[in-house]
Amino acid sequence: MNLLEVKNVSFSYNKAANKKERKTKNKTDNNKYITKAAINNISFSVKNNEVIGVIGHTGSGKSTLMQTLNGLIKPDSGTVYFKGNNIFLNKKELYKFRFKIGLVFQYPEYQLFEETVFKDVSFGPKNMGLDEENINKRVTEALNIVGIKKDLFSKSPFDLSGGQKRRVALAGILAMKPEVLVLDEPTAGLDPVGRKMLLNSIINYKNQNDAAVIIVSHSMEDLAKISDKLLVLNEGNQVAFDTLNNVFKNRERLQSIGLDVPEVTKIMIALKEKGLINNDEVYTVKEAADIITNTFRGCCND
Amino acid sequence: MIKDVSFGQYISKNSLIHKLDPRLKLFLLIAYIIFIFLASNAYSLLFITAATFFILFLSKISLKTYFKNIRMIIPIIIFTSLLNALYSGGGTLLFSYGFIKIYTSGIYRACFMTVRIISLILISSVLSYTTTPTDLTDAIESLLSPLKYLGLKNAVHTMAMMMTIALRFIPALIEETDKIMSSQKARGASMESGGLIKRIKALLPILIPLLISSIRRSYELAEAMESRCYNGAEGRVRMKEMHFINKDYFSFAFSIVVFSVTIILNILF
Ligand SMILES: Nc1ncnc2c1ncn2[C@@H]1O[C@H](COP(=O)(O)OP(=O)(O)OP(=O)(O)O)[C@@H](O)[C@H]1O
Ligand SMILES: [Mg+2]
After folding, report:
1. What are the backbone angles phi and psi of residue A131, rounded to the nearest 5°?
2. Which of B13, B175, B183, B208 to mutate to test the interface with A (most CBs of A within 10 A)?
3. Cβ atoms within 10 Å, residue B56
4. Of A89, B62, B66, B187, which has the highest C-beta tally within 10 A?
5. Rounded distance, CA B70 to CA B77, Å?
6. What's this model's pTM, rounded to 2 decimal places?
Protein backbone atom coordinates (compact mmCIF):
# COMPACT_ATOMS: atom_id res chain seq x y z
CA MET A 1 0.00 0.00 0.00
CA ASN A 2 1.11 3.56 -0.57
CA LEU A 3 2.36 5.19 2.58
CA LEU A 4 2.02 8.70 1.21
CA GLU A 5 0.09 9.65 -1.87
CA VAL A 6 0.06 13.08 -3.49
CA LYS A 7 -2.83 13.72 -5.84
CA ASN A 8 -3.02 16.60 -8.34
CA VAL A 9 -1.55 19.13 -5.97
CA SER A 10 -1.38 22.76 -7.15
CA PHE A 11 -0.41 25.88 -5.28
CA SER A 12 0.44 29.46 -6.09
CA TYR A 13 1.74 32.15 -3.75
CA ASN A 14 0.25 35.58 -3.39
CA LYS A 15 -3.17 34.98 -4.86
CA ALA A 16 -4.56 38.36 -3.86
CA ALA A 17 -1.66 40.21 -5.43
CA ASN A 18 -1.99 38.12 -8.54
CA LYS A 19 -5.62 39.04 -8.94
CA LYS A 20 -4.79 42.71 -8.73
CA GLU A 21 -1.97 42.34 -11.19
CA ARG A 22 -4.24 40.53 -13.58
CA LYS A 23 -6.63 43.44 -13.61
CA THR A 24 -4.02 46.09 -14.21
CA LYS A 25 -1.65 44.17 -16.41
CA ASN A 26 -4.04 42.42 -18.71
CA LYS A 27 -3.31 44.85 -21.50
CA THR A 28 0.36 44.05 -21.57
CA ASP A 29 1.22 40.46 -22.45
CA ASN A 30 2.26 39.45 -19.02
CA ASN A 31 -0.12 36.57 -18.60
CA LYS A 32 2.55 33.97 -18.18
CA TYR A 33 3.94 35.57 -15.07
CA ILE A 34 0.51 36.20 -13.64
CA THR A 35 -0.96 32.75 -13.92
CA LYS A 36 2.24 30.99 -12.93
CA ALA A 37 1.75 28.56 -10.06
CA ALA A 38 4.61 27.53 -7.79
CA ILE A 39 3.52 23.92 -8.28
CA ASN A 40 1.03 22.67 -10.78
CA ASN A 41 -0.84 19.37 -10.73
CA ILE A 42 1.78 17.17 -9.06
CA SER A 43 0.99 13.52 -8.36
CA PHE A 44 3.21 10.81 -6.97
CA SER A 45 3.30 8.23 -4.24
CA VAL A 46 5.81 6.53 -2.00
CA LYS A 47 5.87 3.17 -0.21
CA ASN A 48 7.63 1.94 2.90
CA ASN A 49 11.40 1.62 2.58
CA GLU A 50 11.38 3.54 -0.70
CA VAL A 51 13.48 6.60 -1.52
CA ILE A 52 12.15 9.24 -3.90
CA GLY A 53 14.63 11.79 -5.21
CA VAL A 54 13.25 15.18 -6.23
CA ILE A 55 15.17 17.27 -8.75
CA GLY A 56 14.52 20.44 -10.67
CA HIS A 57 16.10 23.75 -11.45
CA THR A 58 16.15 26.46 -8.83
CA GLY A 59 12.65 27.92 -8.43
CA SER A 60 10.98 24.83 -9.86
CA GLY A 61 8.81 24.43 -6.77
CA LYS A 62 10.64 21.73 -4.87
CA SER A 63 10.55 23.46 -1.49
CA THR A 64 6.93 24.44 -2.01
CA LEU A 65 5.97 20.85 -2.78
CA MET A 66 7.86 19.58 0.29
CA GLN A 67 5.90 21.96 2.51
CA THR A 68 2.57 20.73 1.19
CA LEU A 69 3.54 17.16 2.11
CA ASN A 70 3.23 17.79 5.86
CA GLY A 71 0.49 20.37 5.57
CA LEU A 72 2.50 23.53 6.19
CA ILE A 73 1.14 24.77 2.89
CA LYS A 74 -2.43 23.94 2.02
CA PRO A 75 -2.69 23.32 -1.71
CA ASP A 76 -5.19 25.33 -3.77
CA SER A 77 -6.39 22.07 -5.28
CA GLY A 78 -5.53 18.42 -4.92
CA THR A 79 -4.58 16.77 -1.67
CA VAL A 80 -2.17 14.53 0.22
CA TYR A 81 -3.09 11.13 1.66
CA PHE A 82 -1.17 9.50 4.47
CA LYS A 83 -2.06 5.80 4.73
CA GLY A 84 -5.24 6.63 2.87
CA ASN A 85 -6.24 9.53 5.14
CA ASN A 86 -6.59 12.97 3.63
CA ILE A 87 -4.32 15.04 5.86
CA PHE A 88 -6.20 18.28 5.13
CA LEU A 89 -9.58 16.84 6.06
CA ASN A 90 -9.54 18.13 9.64
CA LYS A 91 -7.62 21.29 10.37
CA LYS A 92 -7.34 20.51 14.08
CA GLU A 93 -5.85 17.09 13.47
CA LEU A 94 -3.39 18.31 10.87
CA TYR A 95 -0.53 18.81 13.31
CA LYS A 96 -0.60 15.12 14.25
CA PHE A 97 0.39 14.21 10.72
CA ARG A 98 3.50 16.37 11.13
CA PHE A 99 4.86 13.78 13.59
CA LYS A 100 4.30 11.05 11.01
CA ILE A 101 5.60 13.05 8.07
CA GLY A 102 8.81 14.64 9.29
CA LEU A 103 10.02 17.59 7.25
CA VAL A 104 13.62 18.78 7.44
CA PHE A 105 13.90 22.26 5.94
CA GLN A 106 16.62 23.71 3.77
CA TYR A 107 19.31 24.94 6.24
CA PRO A 108 17.55 23.43 9.26
CA GLU A 109 20.36 24.54 11.61
CA TYR A 110 18.65 27.94 11.91
CA GLN A 111 15.81 26.37 13.87
CA LEU A 112 17.99 25.35 16.84
CA PHE A 113 17.09 27.22 20.01
CA GLU A 114 17.58 25.21 23.19
CA GLU A 115 20.40 25.43 25.73
CA THR A 116 21.74 21.98 24.98
CA VAL A 117 21.83 19.67 22.01
CA PHE A 118 19.88 17.06 23.92
CA LYS A 119 17.09 19.46 24.89
CA ASP A 120 16.81 20.76 21.35
CA VAL A 121 16.37 17.32 19.88
CA SER A 122 13.73 16.51 22.50
CA PHE A 123 11.55 19.48 21.40
CA GLY A 124 9.69 17.38 18.82
CA PRO A 125 9.07 14.33 21.03
CA LYS A 126 7.96 16.65 23.85
CA ASN A 127 5.37 18.22 21.54
CA MET A 128 4.13 14.71 20.86
CA GLY A 129 3.35 14.39 24.57
CA LEU A 130 5.60 11.39 25.20
CA ASP A 131 6.81 10.52 28.71
CA GLU A 132 10.29 11.36 29.94
CA GLU A 133 11.73 7.88 29.55
CA ASN A 134 10.49 7.52 26.00
CA ILE A 135 11.78 10.97 25.07
CA ASN A 136 15.25 10.22 26.39
CA LYS A 137 15.36 6.94 24.53
CA ARG A 138 14.33 8.48 21.24
CA VAL A 139 16.67 11.44 21.54
CA THR A 140 19.66 9.25 22.30
CA GLU A 141 18.76 6.98 19.40
CA ALA A 142 18.33 9.86 16.98
CA LEU A 143 21.61 11.49 17.96
CA ASN A 144 23.31 8.12 17.56
CA ILE A 145 21.97 7.67 14.06
CA VAL A 146 23.29 11.05 12.94
CA GLY A 147 26.64 10.34 14.60
CA ILE A 148 26.67 12.96 17.34
CA LYS A 149 28.90 11.73 20.17
CA LYS A 150 27.69 11.58 23.77
CA ASP A 151 30.07 14.30 24.96
CA LEU A 152 28.28 16.82 22.74
CA PHE A 153 24.84 16.10 24.18
CA SER A 154 25.10 18.73 26.90
CA LYS A 155 26.83 21.35 24.74
CA SER A 156 25.04 24.40 23.43
CA PRO A 157 23.92 23.78 19.84
CA PHE A 158 25.32 27.19 18.92
CA ASP A 159 28.84 26.04 19.77
CA LEU A 160 28.82 23.27 17.18
CA SER A 161 30.27 23.34 13.68
CA GLY A 162 27.95 23.90 10.70
CA GLY A 163 27.87 20.24 9.78
CA GLN A 164 27.24 19.17 13.37
CA LYS A 165 24.39 21.67 13.69
CA ARG A 166 22.86 20.25 10.53
CA ARG A 167 23.03 16.75 11.98
CA VAL A 168 21.50 17.85 15.27
CA ALA A 169 18.64 19.48 13.36
CA LEU A 170 18.10 16.27 11.43
CA ALA A 171 18.09 14.34 14.71
CA GLY A 172 15.39 16.75 15.94
CA ILE A 173 13.09 15.35 13.26
CA LEU A 174 14.26 11.73 13.47
CA ALA A 175 13.48 11.71 17.20
CA MET A 176 9.79 11.98 16.30
CA LYS A 177 10.21 8.70 14.40
CA PRO A 178 8.36 9.86 11.30
CA GLU A 179 7.19 7.17 8.92
CA VAL A 180 7.83 9.48 6.00
CA LEU A 181 11.01 11.52 6.12
CA VAL A 182 10.99 14.57 3.86
CA LEU A 183 14.30 16.36 3.35
CA ASP A 184 14.80 19.63 1.48
CA GLU A 185 18.39 19.77 0.24
CA PRO A 186 19.85 18.19 3.37
CA THR A 187 23.41 18.23 2.05
CA ALA A 188 23.54 21.80 0.71
CA GLY A 189 26.70 23.56 1.82
CA LEU A 190 28.37 20.50 3.36
CA ASP A 191 31.79 19.12 2.42
CA PRO A 192 31.99 15.70 0.71
CA VAL A 193 32.62 13.84 3.96
CA GLY A 194 29.76 15.66 5.68
CA ARG A 195 27.44 14.87 2.76
CA LYS A 196 28.30 11.22 2.83
CA MET A 197 27.77 10.99 6.59
CA LEU A 198 24.43 12.73 6.40
CA LEU A 199 23.17 10.57 3.54
CA ASN A 200 24.31 7.46 5.41
CA SER A 201 22.40 8.54 8.51
CA ILE A 202 19.29 9.00 6.42
CA ILE A 203 19.61 5.59 4.81
CA ASN A 204 20.30 3.95 8.17
CA TYR A 205 17.20 5.54 9.63
CA LYS A 206 15.15 4.37 6.68
CA ASN A 207 16.37 0.80 6.98
CA GLN A 208 15.91 0.62 10.74
CA ASN A 209 12.39 2.03 10.69
CA ASP A 210 11.10 0.84 7.33
CA ALA A 211 10.44 4.52 6.58
CA ALA A 212 9.83 6.22 3.27
CA VAL A 213 12.21 9.01 2.27
CA ILE A 214 11.55 11.95 -0.04
CA ILE A 215 14.71 13.90 -0.66
CA VAL A 216 15.37 17.07 -2.65
CA SER A 217 18.87 17.56 -3.99
CA HIS A 218 20.74 19.42 -6.67
CA SER A 219 23.24 16.62 -6.86
CA MET A 220 22.28 14.05 -9.47
CA GLU A 221 25.12 11.88 -8.13
CA ASP A 222 23.72 11.80 -4.59
CA LEU A 223 20.21 11.07 -5.82
CA ALA A 224 21.36 8.35 -8.17
CA LYS A 225 23.16 6.69 -5.28
CA ILE A 226 20.20 6.45 -2.94
CA SER A 227 16.91 6.85 -4.85
CA ASP A 228 14.56 4.21 -6.09
CA LYS A 229 12.56 6.66 -8.14
CA LEU A 230 12.97 10.24 -9.30
CA LEU A 231 10.45 13.06 -9.41
CA VAL A 232 11.53 15.70 -11.93
CA LEU A 233 10.06 19.19 -11.73
CA ASN A 234 10.32 22.08 -14.14
CA GLU A 235 8.76 25.49 -13.47
CA GLY A 236 6.24 23.92 -11.14
CA ASN A 237 5.23 21.17 -13.54
CA GLN A 238 5.86 17.48 -13.14
CA VAL A 239 8.15 16.35 -15.93
CA ALA A 240 8.59 12.77 -14.77
CA PHE A 241 7.99 10.40 -11.89
CA ASP A 242 9.74 7.20 -12.72
CA THR A 243 12.59 4.82 -12.04
CA LEU A 244 16.18 6.02 -12.50
CA ASN A 245 16.52 4.05 -15.74
CA ASN A 246 13.46 5.54 -17.32
CA VAL A 247 14.29 9.07 -16.27
CA PHE A 248 17.91 8.96 -17.39
CA LYS A 249 17.06 7.15 -20.64
CA ASN A 250 15.45 10.33 -21.90
CA ARG A 251 18.56 12.48 -21.71
CA GLU A 252 17.36 15.12 -24.20
CA ARG A 253 14.34 15.89 -22.07
CA LEU A 254 16.50 16.34 -19.00
CA GLN A 255 18.86 18.60 -20.89
CA SER A 256 16.00 20.66 -22.25
CA ILE A 257 15.11 21.67 -18.67
CA GLY A 258 18.68 22.39 -17.67
CA LEU A 259 19.44 19.05 -15.99
CA ASP A 260 21.56 16.14 -17.10
CA VAL A 261 22.42 12.55 -16.25
CA PRO A 262 25.08 11.98 -13.55
CA GLU A 263 28.69 12.65 -14.59
CA VAL A 264 29.63 9.01 -14.42
CA THR A 265 26.78 8.09 -16.75
CA LYS A 266 28.11 10.58 -19.29
CA ILE A 267 31.40 8.71 -19.26
CA MET A 268 29.65 5.38 -19.68
CA ILE A 269 27.56 6.71 -22.56
CA ALA A 270 30.73 7.91 -24.27
CA LEU A 271 32.43 4.56 -23.70
CA LYS A 272 29.43 2.73 -25.14
CA GLU A 273 29.42 4.99 -28.19
CA LYS A 274 33.02 4.00 -28.77
CA GLY A 275 31.94 0.36 -28.50
CA LEU A 276 34.12 -0.30 -25.48
CA ILE A 277 31.33 -1.41 -23.16
CA ASN A 278 27.80 -2.52 -23.81
CA ASN A 279 25.86 -1.14 -20.87
CA ASP A 280 25.48 2.54 -20.13
CA GLU A 281 22.59 2.34 -17.68
CA VAL A 282 24.96 3.05 -14.85
CA TYR A 283 24.44 5.85 -12.36
CA THR A 284 26.96 5.35 -9.58
CA VAL A 285 30.73 5.39 -9.62
CA LYS A 286 30.85 2.02 -7.89
CA GLU A 287 28.78 0.23 -10.52
CA ALA A 288 30.75 1.92 -13.27
CA ALA A 289 34.04 0.84 -11.74
CA ASP A 290 32.78 -2.74 -11.52
CA ILE A 291 31.67 -2.80 -15.14
CA ILE A 292 34.86 -1.24 -16.41
CA THR A 293 37.14 -3.54 -14.45
CA ASN A 294 35.12 -6.60 -15.47
CA THR A 295 35.13 -5.65 -19.15
CA PHE A 296 38.78 -4.81 -19.36
CA ARG A 297 40.09 -7.53 -17.10
CA GLY A 298 39.16 -10.00 -19.82
CA CYS A 299 40.91 -8.00 -22.50
CA CYS A 300 44.19 -7.46 -20.67
CA ASN A 301 44.68 -10.94 -19.34
CA ASP A 302 45.24 -12.63 -22.67
CA MET B 1 0.59 34.40 6.58
CA ILE B 2 2.90 36.87 8.20
CA LYS B 3 4.29 37.91 4.81
CA ASP B 4 1.06 39.66 3.98
CA VAL B 5 1.94 42.55 6.25
CA SER B 6 2.89 45.04 3.62
CA PHE B 7 5.89 47.06 4.41
CA GLY B 8 6.97 50.22 2.71
CA GLN B 9 4.15 51.30 0.49
CA TYR B 10 6.12 52.42 -2.53
CA ILE B 11 4.28 51.79 -5.79
CA SER B 12 6.40 52.11 -8.87
CA LYS B 13 4.85 54.36 -11.54
CA ASN B 14 6.21 56.80 -14.05
CA SER B 15 4.69 60.04 -12.90
CA LEU B 16 5.67 63.62 -12.26
CA ILE B 17 5.29 63.14 -8.52
CA HIS B 18 7.49 60.04 -8.54
CA LYS B 19 10.25 61.98 -10.24
CA LEU B 20 10.29 64.91 -7.87
CA ASP B 21 13.27 65.37 -5.63
CA PRO B 22 12.51 63.47 -2.40
CA ARG B 23 13.83 66.34 -0.30
CA LEU B 24 11.35 68.68 -1.93
CA LYS B 25 8.55 66.17 -1.51
CA LEU B 26 9.24 65.79 2.17
CA PHE B 27 9.48 69.53 2.65
CA LEU B 28 6.27 70.20 0.70
CA LEU B 29 4.45 67.45 2.59
CA ILE B 30 5.25 69.18 5.85
CA ALA B 31 4.11 72.48 4.35
CA TYR B 32 0.84 70.97 3.07
CA ILE B 33 0.14 69.50 6.49
CA ILE B 34 0.67 72.89 8.11
CA PHE B 35 -1.57 74.65 5.59
CA ILE B 36 -4.30 72.03 5.88
CA PHE B 37 -4.33 72.84 9.58
CA LEU B 38 -4.27 76.57 8.84
CA ALA B 39 -7.27 76.38 6.51
CA SER B 40 -9.89 77.64 8.86
CA ASN B 41 -13.06 77.93 6.80
CA ALA B 42 -14.93 75.73 4.36
CA TYR B 43 -13.69 77.59 1.28
CA SER B 44 -10.01 77.39 2.08
CA LEU B 45 -10.28 73.80 3.26
CA LEU B 46 -12.15 72.71 0.15
CA PHE B 47 -9.63 74.53 -1.99
CA ILE B 48 -6.61 72.84 -0.47
CA THR B 49 -8.45 69.49 -0.55
CA ALA B 50 -9.07 70.00 -4.26
CA ALA B 51 -5.36 70.72 -4.69
CA THR B 52 -4.61 67.51 -2.82
CA PHE B 53 -6.82 65.53 -5.18
CA PHE B 54 -5.08 67.17 -8.13
CA ILE B 55 -1.77 65.91 -6.74
CA LEU B 56 -3.21 62.41 -6.27
CA PHE B 57 -4.29 62.52 -9.89
CA LEU B 58 -0.79 63.54 -10.99
CA SER B 59 0.76 60.59 -9.14
CA LYS B 60 -1.02 58.13 -11.51
CA ILE B 61 -1.94 55.89 -8.58
CA SER B 62 -5.60 54.93 -8.40
CA LEU B 63 -7.86 56.63 -5.88
CA LYS B 64 -8.87 53.21 -4.64
CA THR B 65 -5.34 52.56 -3.47
CA TYR B 66 -5.34 55.85 -1.61
CA PHE B 67 -8.66 55.21 0.03
CA LYS B 68 -7.39 51.90 1.35
CA ASN B 69 -5.32 53.95 3.77
CA ILE B 70 -8.41 55.79 4.90
CA ARG B 71 -10.27 52.61 5.72
CA MET B 72 -7.84 52.00 8.54
CA ILE B 73 -8.56 55.29 10.28
CA ILE B 74 -12.36 55.22 9.94
CA PRO B 75 -12.73 54.62 13.70
CA ILE B 76 -10.71 57.77 14.37
CA ILE B 77 -12.82 59.74 11.91
CA ILE B 78 -16.05 58.54 13.49
CA PHE B 79 -14.77 59.28 16.96
CA THR B 80 -13.66 62.84 16.18
CA SER B 81 -16.84 63.52 14.21
CA LEU B 82 -18.99 62.36 17.11
CA LEU B 83 -17.08 64.47 19.60
CA ASN B 84 -17.36 67.52 17.39
CA ALA B 85 -21.01 66.90 16.63
CA LEU B 86 -21.88 66.52 20.31
CA TYR B 87 -19.82 69.28 21.82
CA SER B 88 -20.31 72.29 19.63
CA GLY B 89 -23.43 74.23 20.34
CA GLY B 90 -24.61 76.93 17.97
CA GLY B 91 -26.96 77.31 15.05
CA THR B 92 -30.31 75.59 15.18
CA LEU B 93 -31.06 72.51 17.21
CA LEU B 94 -31.53 69.53 14.90
CA PHE B 95 -31.91 66.65 17.26
CA SER B 96 -32.16 66.10 20.94
CA TYR B 97 -32.49 63.01 23.06
CA GLY B 98 -31.88 63.33 26.77
CA PHE B 99 -28.59 65.13 27.22
CA ILE B 100 -27.59 64.54 23.59
CA LYS B 101 -28.15 67.68 21.55
CA ILE B 102 -26.98 68.10 18.00
CA TYR B 103 -26.83 71.53 16.41
CA THR B 104 -26.19 72.52 12.81
CA SER B 105 -22.81 73.90 13.80
CA GLY B 106 -21.96 70.48 15.28
CA ILE B 107 -22.67 68.83 11.94
CA TYR B 108 -20.61 71.47 10.20
CA ARG B 109 -17.67 70.94 12.58
CA ALA B 110 -17.90 67.17 12.12
CA CYS B 111 -17.82 67.46 8.33
CA PHE B 112 -14.98 69.96 8.54
CA MET B 113 -12.86 67.69 10.71
CA THR B 114 -13.57 64.67 8.53
CA VAL B 115 -12.46 66.47 5.39
CA ARG B 116 -9.39 67.76 7.17
CA ILE B 117 -8.34 64.31 8.44
CA ILE B 118 -8.94 62.72 5.05
CA SER B 119 -6.84 65.37 3.30
CA LEU B 120 -4.05 64.88 5.79
CA ILE B 121 -4.01 61.14 5.25
CA LEU B 122 -4.22 61.44 1.47
CA ILE B 123 -1.39 63.95 1.16
CA SER B 124 0.80 61.87 3.46
CA SER B 125 0.07 58.77 1.41
CA VAL B 126 1.36 60.55 -1.68
CA LEU B 127 4.81 60.66 -0.14
CA SER B 128 4.85 57.04 0.98
CA TYR B 129 3.42 55.75 -2.29
CA THR B 130 5.73 57.68 -4.58
CA THR B 131 9.03 57.64 -2.70
CA THR B 132 11.17 54.60 -2.03
CA PRO B 133 12.13 54.15 1.62
CA THR B 134 15.78 54.68 0.73
CA ASP B 135 15.05 57.98 -1.02
CA LEU B 136 13.04 58.98 1.98
CA THR B 137 15.86 58.41 4.43
CA ASP B 138 18.21 60.30 2.12
CA ALA B 139 15.75 63.15 2.13
CA ILE B 140 15.49 63.10 5.91
CA GLU B 141 19.25 63.09 6.19
CA SER B 142 19.61 66.08 3.95
CA LEU B 143 16.78 68.01 5.61
CA LEU B 144 18.42 67.41 8.96
CA SER B 145 21.81 68.42 7.62
CA PRO B 146 21.66 71.96 9.08
CA LEU B 147 22.24 70.20 12.41
CA LYS B 148 25.83 69.70 11.36
CA TYR B 149 26.51 73.29 12.27
CA LEU B 150 25.74 72.22 15.82
CA GLY B 151 28.49 69.60 15.57
CA LEU B 152 25.97 66.82 14.99
CA LYS B 153 27.07 65.83 11.50
CA ASN B 154 27.98 62.29 12.48
CA ALA B 155 24.86 61.82 14.53
CA VAL B 156 22.62 62.79 11.62
CA HIS B 157 24.46 60.51 9.26
CA THR B 158 24.41 57.61 11.71
CA MET B 159 20.71 57.99 12.29
CA ALA B 160 19.95 58.03 8.59
CA MET B 161 22.17 55.03 8.02
CA MET B 162 20.43 53.16 10.81
CA MET B 163 17.05 53.93 9.30
CA THR B 164 18.17 52.73 5.88
CA ILE B 165 19.54 49.51 7.31
CA ALA B 166 16.43 48.91 9.40
CA LEU B 167 14.23 49.40 6.34
CA ARG B 168 16.39 47.03 4.38
CA PHE B 169 16.25 44.38 7.11
CA ILE B 170 12.56 44.31 7.86
CA PRO B 171 11.50 42.24 4.83
CA ALA B 172 14.40 39.86 5.43
CA LEU B 173 13.37 39.47 9.05
CA ILE B 174 9.77 38.78 8.11
CA GLU B 175 10.89 36.09 5.72
CA GLU B 176 13.17 34.60 8.34
CA THR B 177 10.38 34.56 10.94
CA ASP B 178 8.16 32.78 8.47
CA LYS B 179 10.78 30.13 7.85
CA ILE B 180 11.59 29.54 11.51
CA MET B 181 7.89 29.32 12.36
CA SER B 182 7.42 26.68 9.69
CA SER B 183 10.45 24.74 10.92
CA GLN B 184 9.15 24.66 14.46
CA LYS B 185 5.65 23.77 13.30
CA ALA B 186 7.20 20.84 11.47
CA ARG B 187 8.43 19.72 14.90
CA GLY B 188 4.91 19.93 16.24
CA ALA B 189 5.08 23.37 17.87
CA SER B 190 1.65 24.91 18.24
CA MET B 191 1.39 28.65 18.52
CA GLU B 192 -2.33 29.16 18.56
CA SER B 193 -3.45 27.25 21.62
CA GLY B 194 -2.99 27.27 25.38
CA GLY B 195 -2.99 29.87 28.13
CA LEU B 196 -0.92 33.03 28.27
CA ILE B 197 2.17 31.45 29.86
CA LYS B 198 2.05 28.57 27.43
CA ARG B 199 1.82 30.93 24.51
CA ILE B 200 4.73 33.05 25.67
CA LYS B 201 6.74 29.87 26.11
CA ALA B 202 5.75 28.82 22.62
CA LEU B 203 7.33 32.01 21.29
CA LEU B 204 10.79 31.12 22.56
CA PRO B 205 11.55 28.54 19.85
CA ILE B 206 10.90 31.33 17.34
CA LEU B 207 12.41 34.34 19.08
CA ILE B 208 15.73 32.74 19.99
CA PRO B 209 16.66 31.57 16.48
CA LEU B 210 15.42 34.90 15.15
CA LEU B 211 17.56 36.86 17.58
CA ILE B 212 20.59 34.74 16.85
CA SER B 213 20.23 35.08 13.13
CA SER B 214 19.75 38.86 13.46
CA ILE B 215 22.96 39.11 15.43
CA ARG B 216 24.74 36.99 12.87
CA ARG B 217 23.37 39.14 10.07
CA SER B 218 24.41 42.36 11.73
CA TYR B 219 27.94 41.08 12.31
CA GLU B 220 28.13 40.08 8.69
CA LEU B 221 26.85 43.44 7.55
CA ALA B 222 29.22 45.32 9.84
CA GLU B 223 32.12 43.32 8.47
CA ALA B 224 31.01 43.85 4.90
CA MET B 225 30.75 47.59 5.51
CA GLU B 226 34.10 47.79 7.20
CA SER B 227 35.83 45.81 4.52
CA ARG B 228 34.59 48.47 2.11
CA CYS B 229 36.19 51.11 4.30
CA TYR B 230 33.00 52.56 5.70
CA ASN B 231 33.81 54.94 8.51
CA GLY B 232 30.79 57.11 9.05
CA ALA B 233 30.04 60.43 7.46
CA GLU B 234 33.69 61.44 7.09
CA GLY B 235 34.62 61.89 3.44
CA ARG B 236 31.55 60.05 2.22
CA VAL B 237 30.07 61.09 -1.12
CA ARG B 238 26.83 60.05 -2.79
CA MET B 239 26.36 57.88 -5.79
CA LYS B 240 23.21 59.75 -6.76
CA GLU B 241 23.53 63.45 -6.08
CA MET B 242 20.15 65.06 -5.71
CA HIS B 243 19.62 68.07 -7.93
CA PHE B 244 16.65 70.32 -8.39
CA ILE B 245 15.39 70.33 -11.93
CA ASN B 246 12.59 72.23 -13.69
CA LYS B 247 9.90 69.87 -12.44
CA ASP B 248 10.95 70.64 -8.89
CA TYR B 249 10.88 74.39 -9.36
CA PHE B 250 7.51 74.13 -11.04
CA SER B 251 6.04 72.02 -8.26
CA PHE B 252 7.44 74.37 -5.67
CA ALA B 253 5.86 77.34 -7.41
CA PHE B 254 2.55 75.49 -7.75
CA SER B 255 2.53 74.74 -4.04
CA ILE B 256 3.32 78.34 -3.14
CA VAL B 257 0.28 79.40 -5.19
CA VAL B 258 -1.89 76.81 -3.42
CA PHE B 259 -0.70 77.98 -0.02
CA SER B 260 -1.24 81.64 -0.87
CA VAL B 261 -4.75 81.05 -2.17
CA THR B 262 -5.56 79.08 0.98
CA ILE B 263 -4.48 82.00 3.15
CA ILE B 264 -6.34 84.51 0.98
CA LEU B 265 -9.53 82.43 1.22
CA ASN B 266 -9.02 82.27 4.97
CA ILE B 267 -8.88 86.02 5.16
CA LEU B 268 -11.67 86.78 2.67
CA PHE B 269 -14.39 84.63 4.21
N1 LIG C 1 7.19 32.67 0.29
C2 LIG C 1 7.03 32.87 -1.02
N3 LIG C 1 6.24 33.87 -1.47
C4 LIG C 1 6.05 34.06 -2.80
N5 LIG C 1 6.59 33.31 -3.76
C6 LIG C 1 7.39 32.29 -3.38
C7 LIG C 1 7.65 32.02 -2.00
N8 LIG C 1 8.46 30.95 -1.92
C9 LIG C 1 8.72 30.59 -3.19
N10 LIG C 1 8.07 31.37 -4.08
C11 LIG C 1 8.09 31.22 -5.55
O12 LIG C 1 7.60 29.93 -5.86
C13 LIG C 1 8.40 29.31 -6.85
C14 LIG C 1 8.94 27.99 -6.35
O15 LIG C 1 9.82 28.24 -5.26
P16 LIG C 1 10.51 27.08 -4.44
O17 LIG C 1 11.16 27.71 -3.25
O18 LIG C 1 9.52 26.02 -4.17
O19 LIG C 1 11.63 26.57 -5.47
P20 LIG C 1 12.76 25.48 -5.27
O21 LIG C 1 12.58 24.49 -6.34
O22 LIG C 1 12.78 25.00 -3.87
O23 LIG C 1 14.08 26.32 -5.57
P24 LIG C 1 15.55 26.14 -4.93
O25 LIG C 1 16.18 25.01 -5.64
O26 LIG C 1 16.22 27.44 -5.27
O27 LIG C 1 15.40 25.94 -3.46
C28 LIG C 1 9.48 30.32 -7.21
O29 LIG C 1 9.11 30.93 -8.41
C30 LIG C 1 9.49 31.30 -6.07
O31 LIG C 1 9.79 32.58 -6.55
MG1 LIG D 1 14.15 25.12 -2.26
Report:
1. -85, 165
2. B183
3. 20
4. B187
5. 9
6. 0.76
Q: For residue B133, which of B16, B9, B5, B240 has the smallest C-alpha distance?
A: B9
**Residue whose C-alpha is closest to residue A37's, from A66, A53, A60:** A60
Q: Where do the structural domains in chain B lie, given as residue ranges? A: 2-131+240-268
Which of B176, B179, B186 faces A98 most closely, judged by CB atoms? B186
How remote is the C-alpha of B259 from its chain's centroid?
Answer: 22
CA dist B5 and B114 (Å) reads 27
A110 and B209 Cβ atoms separated by less than 8 Å: yes
Please give the sequence-ordered ranges of beta strands (E in DSSP) within chain A, or none if there are none.
4-11, 39-46, 51-56, 77-82, 85-86, 101-104, 180-184, 212-216, 229-234, 237-243
pLDDT tens, A71-116? 999 999 999 999 999 999 988 888 889 999 999 998 888 889 999 9
CA of A294 to the centre of ligand 1 (A): 45
- Respond yes or no on whether ipTM tops 0.95: no
Amino acid letter, A232: V
Amino acid letter, residue B218: S
Minimum CA distance residue for ligand 1 atom 1: A13
Residue A137 phi, psi dihedral angles, 5° rounding: -60, -50
